[in-house]
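We emphasize that the prediction below concerns an isolated chain of 150 residues; any contacts that depend on oligomerization or on bound cofactors are therefore not represented. The input was used exactly as deposited, without trimming of termini.
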Amino acid sequence: MNELDRIDHSIIRELQKNARITVTELASRVGLSKTPCQVRMRRLEDQGFITGYTVLVNQSKLGHSHIAFAQITLSDTSSEALKAFNAAVKKIAAVEQCHMIAANFDYLMKVRTRNMAEYRQVLGEQISALPHVLQTSTFVVMENVKDAGL
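Result of the prediction step, given as a token string:
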């Protein structure tokens, strides 16, 4: 994989700000002409630095303003158990993020729902039913101070 230079980093930063920017505008902002900018974008995609383009949604406007973080401790952390957990958690729509953690618990997940009642249902019926879940702890967000996705 090639090293990224200043222009590559600039392209990535600009696309993170606005993935719908035209190639002409992007090229202007990073100091290139259109064709070399397109070539660099394609290379960044081909090499896996840019993995896709998406739209950021204001979840609160859609009625999903309740955020909780759930700590998950598993009863088994063998490779097979982790694979089973990982596959199953991907199927829960309310789980926005899930990270394996090096701590006194195994996973930390960000769960977004409409309200506490819905979170309680997701926790009780879906998260607690995931393979090998031994224990959960919940931390409810009181205020979203900084979110890179907004």
